[in-house]
């Protein structure tokens, strides 16, 4: 099945609201737990496409000394993230910024960790993500990037949606389906890493619907 793009920036109220209300707790907490298990000494982390900031909040709560810069191109997502960060009392650890990738307004090589969940499938040109990671991560920085795996067929995508989000809001289910169709296969991700001269990073399938790229720059 070929990749079908979905809208890049999530800036419609109903999509942002459905996404912010959805329960991603187990997947997001596992992402944070695995990150910390592998890279326990992170100090200055960048989260690309942070959405409603559930992952940065969990990371801040798990590592009280970490500082996180979390960016998203969507004004509405950043507004939602600001409310969540304030509610979690994590303002002292998390800076939120509306910013578009590529061309993020940061000096080169300043972060010791770059994380992201579910941004790659939004990008028309996936190379943009890997090039920005190379530019912004200091030498030795930890990279921890997760996204969806594109299934073989629309039928398989529908099956995955029903299996994991049966009782979620219809808008969220439709977004999930479209995201699966816009996602990359593991082979495509490996090819992107090769092209970006990042083959030293490890790319693996970590569930029936997710891949993870991790390693050190
Ligand atoms: C599916 S959400 C993932 C949110 C969050 N990382 C999470 O795990 O819940 C993807 C986010 O990436 C943002 N995004 C897409 N393209 C972007 C770009 N080029 N620059 C910055 N943010 C982008 C979207 O606006 C959206 O909020």
Task: Write a concise synopsis of the structure shown.
With 217 residues, this protein is α/β, with parallel strands linked by helices. The protein contains 8 helices and 7 strands, in the order ααβαβαββαβαααββ. The chain has helices at residues 13-21, 25-38, 54-62, 75-87, 127-136, 154-165, 170-182, 186-195; strands at residues 44-48, 67-72, 94-98, 111-117, 137-148, 202-205, 210-216.
What does this protein structure show overall?
The chain is built from 8 helices and 7 strands. With 217 residues, it is an alpha/beta fold. The protein has one domain: Rossmann fold (3-Layer(aba) Sandwich). It has a 7-stranded mixed beta sheet with strand order 3-2-1-4-5-7-6, with helices on both faces. Helix 2 crosses helix 3 and helix 6 crosses helix 7. Bound molecules: S-adenosylmethionine. The site of S-adenosylmethionine has 20 residues, from helix 3. The site of S-adenosylmethionine (SAM) has 20 residues, from helix 3.
